[in-house]
Design goal:
The complex is a heterodimer of chains A (681) and B (310). With 681 residues, chain A is α+β, with helices and mostly antiparallel strands. Chain A has a domain at 1-221 and 249-258. Chain A has 12 helices and 33 strands. By secondary structure, chain B is mainly α. In chain B, 83% of the residues lie in helices and 0% in strands. In chain B, helix 2 (17-46) runs antiparallel to helix 5 and helix 7 (144-155) runs antiparallel to helix 8. The two termini of chain B are 22 Å apart. Classes of the chains: A alpha+beta (681), B mainly alpha (310). Chains A and B meet through strand 26, helix 6, strand 33, helix 11 and helix 12 of A and helix 2, helix 3, helix 4, helix 5 and helix 8 of B.
Chain lengths: 681, 310
């Protein structure tokens, strides 16, 4: 015991020593998170070879109730080591349209891993492949410890490593000429899950993001003296080394990852939102769009704080990737996000705004609430896509994503298009690499959750939805929430049991599709044949029995020989079908030609429902979900029927289509010319 | 000479209204064939829904999403037609151009006999000429690579996006130039073939090139003048069409009429181009024939220069 205690003291002393050597201002007076995984990294960038040489000190606290005999680490950069890694096999060598150059592969090598006492643990390292058994994948290793870590104890490990960045930036990390975006770059400890009594440390997959514990990071980056650096956290100081390099020291608290970028080309722009300093690092040829970036960042921060709670960090850095380095664009890290634009991008094409609002949103749904993106990607990407669409609409109105040449596309509509194109391959919750394909991963991680949350918002009402979301953020800040936690918050806060909804939406691939199958309306004539007194019925009587609402419970009426001249009666029928497996309560609006409207509510459980009416008016139309609240409906076109055909829309669309055909037949060169100009990101 | 050719071209094209209608009907026919599958599909799917009315106004992106997802069988039907109709349209245009040029070369208003016999007479020749001209079109399109070469020469292999963006516009301009040169060349080669009743298309191929490059500035200026008129009318049409968005039958009818008037105008400009270029060709040929005959025949005769129709 004394020996263990001694080791702990040594580790603590070394940890304190490292802070003394590089004093930094504390960002928060009190820790906001458990600060389990803390890193102190000294890294030197060799520009020409794209090599990083680094020394890392990891101080890891066992805050579980378990005795831990081994540790597990991610070596993400080994995904780009060769074509045999799991990432490369799954991706086919292409990620978001980017390919690694012939000589652009990257890697990470742990040269030495040792305890502060000097005990070398390097030989104990063993690569493991917990997900697919691919022995050529070296993105995870286990480290059996010479001494288990008991609950409440701390371990410190000194790790020497060398890494080479892929070129061009691939899957969000890498280099392009003088530009470097350095993400997923250091040996990173997995997450010990107390309840499972095991490490959660998955291999790096083509369709997955990350999961990590919070901590404090002190990172010193040595780069060419002329370079500008942007990184997670706050810059503490810059030291000129006198050898043409400078060391930039960054400190970050209560974050669970650290990324940085550097190039001599960055142009810096600044703004502030509610006391948070926003710094935008632009490429020189995009400097004209700096205000667009700053404004989008302000919008993102304003709405997130207004709707979902406080952004506790003092700063945000937005990075504009270099031309030819789009692989590092559109990515999130704590307090550092990457955007993406193109020179000449029209204002109406709101790519910049959409990306920045989305990536900033991750600072809530991935950073403040550190869910497991390997296993429940929807909890970050999906919730974030929903909030992104809400903010885009609030900030930019109709045509929030595209408003160009008369074409208007809302972000919310865009989400729905993406979802319904890949609606039924997988349930929403799956491990990221187990989806049918990349499109299914995209639909289930991004667009389906966004669409289902819009549906839920319309079901609960905006106020209740906001309360639920705010409570979710408040309760799970700086923790690792799961889908169950999310659902629990919603059930408790809304005061309703929503399991029926989430079960279908998250754990099944059921699609939601209600359709008006048919409608009819015919004039009632009196029944013919014998009545119960064996007399023939009056052929002109039209006395349909109906309830107060005019709905018939029987279409058989009795003849009345003493009839007065009454208005014509019609029997109208509306047949609704549930075509998908997803059960959801629906509203049906039935309109009659005397202006009368009837709203029906159907729980949607059965396969069909028939409504029959007897009224002195003819049916005009029947519409399911008349207020367009059910965004999960995979086919809204079958949601209504009219008794009379209306060819206006058919004629207009056909005429437009024919016109374009006539035009292009006569001038096919226009199709060719439109290819001349394209935006390259 | 250019302005005069242009004026004559516009006047003669208007005078040949029957040909204009034939051209328009050919275009309309192909357009209808390509539009029928969509119309049938929409009739079945939306005419008896509320979309039947609402889509008469602004386009609904939710409907678009449903369309591309749920009506995907439309694509296969339509793509089948897309493989056939443009070829049919091209052949029709090649066929009709023989008749048009015969009429314009004869300086008559319109003669059914001249038009249809000209169409029939030159169809085979023009088809051969078109095939022979393909390499020429290819060479014209090589000018597009000028942009890449110049960009690389001055800005290296990794230029800023500001360079590639403007280079994109230049590339588009070069593409437009290549298209225009191809049209000009093919038109003058055909005009030569008709004016000389040439049966050897190799000769027409060569003479077309010779004429175009011999009068390069003028032929390009004439073509640009026509293009400018077309662009102005296109802009006017766009402004008008963008106003016609209300969901009522009259507005939809007005939009349809505006579209068809615009297409009719395009056909008119196509004929006007033929007429103007024929006039230009005749004027230049006449002038050069005069110059060529002057030393040997100082006394002018009433005979027309060689190659011009009687």
């Amino acid at each position: 015991m004394p020996k263990t205690r001694m080791l702990c003291y040594i580790a603590l002393w070394l940890f304190c020593l490292s802070f003394e050597a590089h004093p930094q201002q504390a960002i928060f007076p009190e820790p906001l998170s458990p600060r389990i995984a803390n890193y102190d990294i000294d890294v030197r960038l060799e520009v020409k070879s794209r090599i990083l040489r680094a020394k890392e000190v990891l101080i890891w606290h066992n805050k579980s109730t378990d005795v831990i005999a081994e540790m597990q680490f991610h070596l993400y950069l080994n995904a780009f080591r060769n074509t045999r890694s799991t990432f490369m096999k799954e991706s086919g060598g292409t990620s978001r349209g980017n390919k690694i150059d012939k000589d652009g592969f990257g890697f990470i090598e742990v040269n030495k891993i040792a305890l502060p006492s000097g005990e070398d643990l390097t030989a104990r390292m063993e690569f493991i492949q917990p997900d697919d058994g691919n022995i050529d994948d070296r993105t995870v290793f286990r480290l059996p410890l010479s001494k288990p870590i008991k609950p409440g104890e701390t371990i410190s490990l000194n790790i020497d490593f060398t890494a080479k960045l892929p070129q061009p930036p691939f899957a969000r990390t890498g280099a392009k000429e003088e530009y470097f975006f350095v993400g997923q770059w250091f040996p990173k400890v997995g997450v010990w899950e107390d309840e499972k009594n095991s490490w959660n440390c998955h291999q790096f997959h083509a369709n997955s993001e990350f999961y990590a514990d919070y901590g404090v990071y002190n990172v010193r980056m040595t780069v060419p003296a002329e370079n500008i650096v942007g990184a997670t956290g706050l810059e503490q100081n810059v030291t000129d080394n006198g050898d043409g390099t400078k060391t930039h020291f960054y400190h970050a608290e209560d974050v669970h990852d650290f990324a940085w970028t550097t190039t001599p080309e960055f142009k810096e722009f600044f703004t502030e939102q509610n006391g948070v300093k926003i710094r935008v690092l632009m490429q020189p040829d995009h400097a004209g769009q700096a205000e667009r970036h700053l404004a989008a960042a302000r919008v993102a921060m304003e709405y997130h704080e207004k709707w979902y709670g406080d952004y506790p960090f003092p700063n945000l850095t937005v990075v504009d990737p270099r031309r030819g380095a789009g692989g590092s664009g559109g990515m999130e890290y704590p307090t550092l996000i990457t955007a993406g634009t193109a020179y000449g991008l029209p204002d109406g094409l709101r790519v910049v705004e959409l990306i920045i609002i989305h990536e900033f949103g991750h600072n809530f749904w991935y950073h403040l609430l550190a869910s497991n993106e390997f296993e429940e990607s929807w909890m970050d990407e999906g919730i974030n896509s929903y909030t992104e669409s809400r903010i885009m609409h609030a900030a930019y109105g109709e045509g929030s994503a595209i408003n160009l040449f008369g074409i208007k596309l809302d972000d919310q509509q865009f989400q729905r298009i993406s979802y319904i194109s890949n609606a039924d391959f997988d349930p929403t919750i799956r491990k990221a690499w187990e989806y049918y394909n990349g499109n299914s991963y995209g639909a289930n991680s991004y667009s389906k959750p966004a669409t289902l949350l819009f549906t839920l918002e319309n079901y609960l009402g905006t106020e209740t939805m906001l309360k639920c979301m705010q409570e979710y953020v408040r309760r799970w800040r700086f923790k690792h929430p799961t889908s169950k936690d999310f659902i629990q918050v919603f059930n408790e806060t809304s005061g309703q049991n929503l399991d029926w909804f989430f079960d279908q939406a998250l754990n099944s691939r059921a699609t939601l599709d209600y359709s008006v199958a048919s409608i009819s309306s015919k004039e009632l004539t009196s029944p013919r044949g014998f009545d119960f007194t064996m007399k023939t019925t009056d052929s002109t009587a039209t006395d349909g029995k109906q309830d107060d609402d005019g709905r018939a419970d029987s279409v058989n009426g009795r003849g009345d020989s003493t009839k007065k001249k009454e208005p014509k009666q019609y029997e109208s029928k509306v047949n609704i079908r549930r075509l998908g497996e997803f059960v959801f309560p629906v509203e049906v609006l039935v309109k009659f030609d005397n202006g009368e409207e009837v709203r029906e509510h159907w729980d949607g459980r059965e396969l069909w429902k028939k409504f029959t009416y007897q009224k002195p008016a003819k049916l005009v139309s029947a519409t399911i979900d008349p207020d367009k609240r059910i965004w999960l409906d995979v086919n809204m076109s079958n949601n209504s029927k009219t008794l009379e055909a209306n060819m206006l829309g058919v004629n207009k669309l056909s005429a437009r289509w024919m016109f374009w055909m006539q035009f292009l037949l006569d001038s096919p060169e226009w199709a060719l010319l439109s290819r001349g100009l394209n935006f390259s990101f | 000479m250019i302005l005069e050719s242009l004026k004559v071209g516009l006047r003669r094209a208007w005078a040949a209204k029957r040909i204009l209608i034939i051209y328009y009907l050919a275009n309309l026919f192909c357009g209808v064939v390509l539009a029928v599958p969509l119309r049938n599909l929409l009739s079945v799917k939306i005419s008896e829904t509320l979309l039947g009315e609402s889509l008469g106004g602004r386009f609904d992106m939710n409907f678009f999403a449903d369309f591309i997802t749920n009506f995907d069988h439309f694509g296969s039907t339509w793509f089948g037609l897309v493989m056939i109709i443009p070829i049919f349209y091209l052949l029709t245009n090649v066929f009709l151009s023989g008749g048009v040029l015969s009429v314009f070369a004869s300086e008559e208003k319109y003669s059914t006999t001249v038009f249809w016999s000209g169409s029939a007479r030159y169809f085979g020749r023009f088809l051969r000429l078109w095939l022979m001209a393909l390499p020429v079109f290819g060479i014209f399109f090589l000018i597009i690579f000028l942009e890449k070469g110049v960009t690389r020469l001055f800005f290296g292999a990794d230029p800023y996006q500001s360079i590639t963006y403007w280079a994109g516009w230049v590339r588009t301009g070069l593409m437009a130039s290549a298209v225009m040169l191809s049209y000009i060349y093919f038109d003058y080669a055909r005009i030569y073939a008709v004016m000389h009743d040439e049966t050897k298309m190799r000769r027409a191929w060569l003479m077309g090139l010779k004429f175009m490059f011999g009068n390069f500035a003028k032929v390009v200026l004439l073509a640009l003048s026509m293009a400018l008129i077309s662009v102005v009318v296109m802009l006017v049409y766009n402004v008008l069409a963008n106003q016609l968005v209300a969901a009522n039958a009259l507005v939809v009818l007005m939009l349809f009429l505006a579209q068809q008037v615009y297409i009719f105008f395009r056909m008119y400009m196509k004929l006007a181009a033929f007429a103007a270029q024929t006039t230009f060709f005749q004027t230049v040929s006449a002038a050069s024939a005069m110059v060529a005959t002057e030393p040997t025949a100082p006394e002018a005769t009433d005979e027309l220069p060689e190659g011009l129709p009687a």
